[in-house]
Design goal:
Number of helices: 11
Number of strands: 18
CATH topology: Purple Acid Phosphatase, chain A, domain 2
Oligomer: single chain
Shape: globular
Largest sheet: 6 strands, mixed
Radius of gyration: 24 Å
Distance between the termini: 80 Å
CATH architecture: 4-Layer Sandwich
Order of helices and strands: HHHEHEEEHEHHEEEEEHEHEEEEEHEEH
Strand content: 15-25%
Structural class: alpha/beta
Low-confidence stretches: 19-35, 381-390, 392-406
CATH superfamily: Metallo-dependent phosphatases
């Protein structure tokens, strides 16, 4: 054997060591208790994320006990993201995936469907600070209508929802609003309070959901407590005051823990704030966060707390599976992101809602444009592309010439 062959064999040996090390690392990442969790099933679920069909993306039954399906940052839009190459997201696909998940797994893997915040758009009226445009208000109304039909189990009220919040939480209108759009009752926040002179209805700091399942140890059902928080932010003239999220969780956590088997915090916050919440409240079981993140940090465990992030605009739907032990405690988890692209068909009834809403919203956008001297971009009439305003100031030849001569 010559020296070249010896060097090649040594190289192959080290490559084998590296691959083996990676395999051990992945194995430990997938499960902390080998043999008690279906490793093969979890591996298949990871591979299914980028699979071609809806059925493949649903994955396999890997003995998970419960799942949380989550999204965020829909920003008043029921439609897809508007991306030219690969439009993703939207109510119709989100509804289809959750419907298919329920149909496939039934009581084997029961799930709770949640939103982490920024459900509403913040598009302001032209030259009217802290006032939403007419079309923005309509977009937000349709969000409430749609999710009152395709229900969420909990909705976190974030600092980016304040402007529309002061309208829908008006004390004089609140009871009627609840009747029209009952999803409003599922909004929570523990650190958004109401200023003393405000005429706004305060939100519940948390809510409890009971869910039946077959893999809760010796229990036929468990209770999940959801606590809502958002990043500290000026309330402006909205009538809301935002307090420190970590401290507010600390106040409400003992009460929620006494009522729930699993405590989940829904946090619209930066990674630093999310970690501080966990640091000050180590008894949290799960923290699902969002902050307009297109590339979320990997799922991780901070102490006992499982920490995951939702993807921006819910282009990819989050799916967090928990594996419980015989006492109903979390022994392991798996977080997946499901692309809501063309391979996920529309849920028919949801698609009808989206189409009806689009007609009304487009008409209102045109009306606003005419009144304000604005124009709707031809390539994006509903203003879905982030970073591009839905309405822009008209530029005449005269104004263009005047600008150049300054």
């Amino acid at each position: 054997m010559n020296s070249v062959q010896q060097r090649f064999l040594i190289f192959c040996f080290f490559v084998a060591l590296i691959i083996g090390g990676i395999g051990i690392f992945i194995s430990k990442t997938l499960t902390s208790e080998p043999g008690k969790v279906d490793l093969a099933g979890k591996s298949k679920n990871i591979q299914a994320e980028r699979a071609a069909t809806l059925e493949e993306r649903l994955g396999v039954d890997d003995n998970a006990s419960i799942a949380f399906i989550y999204g965020a940052d829909m920003q008043g839009s029921l439609e897809q993201c508007g991306c030219k190459l690969n439009p993703q997201g939207g109510l119709a696909r989100r509804a289809k995936y959750t419907e298919a998940f329920k149909e496939k797994y039934k009581d084997n893997i029961p799930f709770l469907n949640v939103d982490i915040g920024h459900l509403f758009t913040e598009d302001l009226a032209f030259n009217k600070p802290e006032t939403l445009r007419e079309d923005a208000i309509l977009m937000n109304q349709w969000m409430l209508k749609a999710f009152s039909q395709f229900k969420l189990d909990a909705v976190n009220f974030s600092h980016r929802d304040l402007l529309y919040g002061k309208t829908i939480l008006d004390k004089e209108k609140y009871d009627n609003q609840i009747k029209e759009t009952p999803i409003l009752e599922e909004f929570i926040s523990s650190n958004i309070s109401i200023s003393t002179d405000s005429k706004i209805t305060s939100l519940n700091p948390y809510l409890i959901r009971e869910i039946n399942g077959k893999r809760f140890g010796n229990k036929p059902s468990i209770k999940v407590g959801f606590i809502g928080v958002t990043e500290p932010w000026p309330g402006g003239t909205t009538g809301f005051v935002i307090d420190n999220p970590a401290e507010k969780v600390k106040v409400v956590l003992p009460e929620v823990r006494s009522k729930a088997d699993i405590v989940v915090v829904l946090a619209y916050a930066t990674l630093g704030t999310a970690r501080e919440i966990i640091k000050q409240n180590p008894d949290i079981d799960v923290l699902i966060a969002a902050n307009s993140v297109s590339a979320p940090p990997p799922a991780q465990r901070e102490g006992k707390t499982v920490l995951v992030y939702a993807m921006h605009q819910t282009k990819n739907l989050g799916e967090l599976r928990l594996y419980l032990d015989g006492e109903g405690k979390i022994k392991d988890y798996l977080n997946r992101y499901i692309p809501l692209d063309k391979n996920i068909p529309d849920q028919i009834d949801a698609a009808k809602i989206v189409a009806t809403a689009k007609v009304e919203i487009d008409m209102t956008k045109t009306k606003v444009a005419e009144e304000e001297g604005l124009e709707v971009p031809e390539n994006n009439p509903t203003g879905q592309n982030i970073g591009q305003p839905a309405l822009t100031v008209k530029t005449t030849k005269e104004s263009s010439k005047e600008t150049k001569t300054r």
